[in-house]
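hey all, quick one before standup. I had two proteins in the batch that finished overnight and I want to keep them in one place so we stop losing track of which output belongs to which input. First protein below, input sequence then structure tokens straight from the run.
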Amino acid sequence: MPLARLAPLLVATAFALGSATAHAGTSLQAQVDDVIEPMMREHGIAGMAVAVFANGQAHYFSYGVASKATAEPVNADTLFEIGSLSKTYTATLAALASAEGKLDLQAPARRYQPALAGTPLGDASVLELGAYSADCLPLQFPDDVQTDSQALDFLRNWKPRSVHGTQRCYSNPSLGLFGDLAARARQQPFAELMSQGLLPQMGLQHTYLHVLHVPANAQGLYAQGYDAQNRPVRVNPGPYADEAYGIKTSARDLLRYVRLHMQPAELPPALRKAAAITQAGYFQVGAMTQGLGWERYPLPVSLDTLVDGNGPRLIREPQATHRLDPPLPAVPDAWYNKTGSTGGFGAYAAFIPAEGKAIILLANRNYPNEARVRAATGFCPALASERHPRERIVGQDVVHKNIHYKTVDAVHRPCA
């Protein structure tokens, strides 16, 4: 079924996955197949790993190959680069430092990086850097910035383009500096804090920060990525790569990570607080509320809104932003998500705490974010072109915020 026919829908009901029975699992497999297989053909994706958490159970679905050269099939433990989805890990590390009283998110950057003293960027707060709102820093460092010292020189010489906290410009340098400041506040290298601290604390045994940190016994699980010309490619580390886009992980580990953000009760107290800090709302950017790493949308939310929020406009263009003071607390009744890409990989994660539902998409090709969002919301037939108060969904009994939703043009069979 063409992905275009999945729109429009109300995402508030997109994860009504039915009871966790063997029959339901079979039906879910068919529904995921119906979405993923044509999408892979359309975008020339060699392999994908999909994970869904619902009704207290994890479901894993694997497609295609991890490498065209070896024809090794993808499985739930295949390692994928997740690109900017790594930013949520960096945000969690920074939030943990804040929860433990080691990092003041409102402090100016110069407190933790004295080399920025006397510069406009040094006056920006740690929080503003983490929310891409310190100033309109570029999406990437220029090509001639290759080392950490060159990156610091670039940031020291940055000329202001906006008033702090008024413009959101999605930026690897901004988020990278944010992670670096968090590590400096802890007086430990970022890679050490992540690999020996946060990842094991969250029970992530098959998640790695840098290609050199993937042990020999896991190298065989590392998928081969493919660029737009189907050439084999893997991430090329640059300044702040670890902080901004360095994580490699599996569907199994990533689903655990997302589930713990969604259901943090089993985490130690400081990490529970850190999860809430990442999911709080610090700036309003149109329909999207910017957290630290995570971006959130109150339910119900339309597919068009999610597609736009994850599309090129919010990634490549400056957006007016409104500071939320005090910050909005984390809320369960919202759609949290983050995309991530490298030259040869594409990732997407989304979760709804109030419904205990999450979805992971990992692919060894960079394909459009729109397709990822449509796929993530396409695993169930709870689709509608309009909302009607006090009416029920056709074939489903789905109620959200005391509002009932009615299917006008359902395009999938009912969930089992």
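OK second protein, same deal, sequence then tokens:
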Amino acid sequence: MKQRIEQSERFRGGWTLIEMILALSLVSMVFLVILPQFRLLQAGWDSKESASEIQQNARVLQEHLNRHLAAARSISAVSGTAQTLGFVEFQDASGQTYRYEVGPDGYVYFGPAGDLSLLAGPVSRFQITGFSLDDLVNPAEEVSSIRLLRVSSVIAGTGGRSESFDFSVYLRTESEPTALRILLVVGNPSSLTAYEQRLYQRLEGWGYEISLLDDHAGQTQMDAAAAAADVVFIPSSCGCQNLGSKLALVPIGAVLEHENCHDDMRISNQEGTTYLAWGVRIVNDTHPITDSYAVNDYVVVLSYLLGDLVRMRGSAAGGLIPLGMRLLQSQVNLAAVEAGGALWGGQPAPARRVVLPWGYSGFNNSWLTDDGWQILRRSIEWAAGRM
């Protein structure tokens, strides 16, 4: 009897063949269900990593081209407009010849002619077109007349992913002007409003050279005007419905007041909105625009107690640098984007951008305090590359 009990216990303590088959079947089913999810997660991670790699390459390429070509003395050679993997050769201020070109491996190289080093890539298109200031539609025939380069690139990432990036670079081949050249966008250049007259006088008093631009102007006229300026100022008196996105990708700095221009200038995907307030809470004291204040300083920028300020809404540009916020809330009202920083939609900013904390159709710039005017001036100086 004892032997029979022991044999029964040994039998109950083991696995039968059927139980093992069932267990293996269940484990297999679990793996069949889970494995595709792991593959999806891996694919999603690879896609994000590839997108980040592409954006980084685009930022490096654009910042490098802007920095070096803007200071070029002259263009000595450029590839034909039909050449998708092109090159450009130029002389810097010291007379040294430099060159950008695509190597056999599909990467963009840069350096002194004959001694190039890897810069960014890979690219499947690096197309360069040069224009003179007299004709921004038809490519320039004479290399010596080129003052604006348009670069069309397609940057590849891992997994077969690629993205297009188009931008322009204005060549300041003349010596740096002593006065900052500001392009002021207005509703009617022949009849300035009281708001625009006050702004004009203030800018003139700071020693700036001012050019007026009609907000109804076409893209070609705006490109030409921007090529002869250091920074464009979009006041709250202009018509954003007329201006649209024609200045969104100009290769000079831009400072915008008008809340309705936030989305057109690709600072966010929505227009700004107003709220009753008089000051800005500083959140960044290392940026040149706000480094004269301390973090959490409440800077009063309006003297009119019934005035409104403007805050940003929606999804902000990826490269946005918050400088000021609404009191007791995390709503940005003063911000900047560095050249090459991602605009809304992913396009790298061709030059610096600043969003001011005021500016709507009924705004009156006579309400600005000394601190308000100081923030405005420092924004212009920084956007123009003078800080």
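Flagging for whoever picks this up: The chain has a mean pLDDT of 85. The chain has two domains: 69-170, 181-383.
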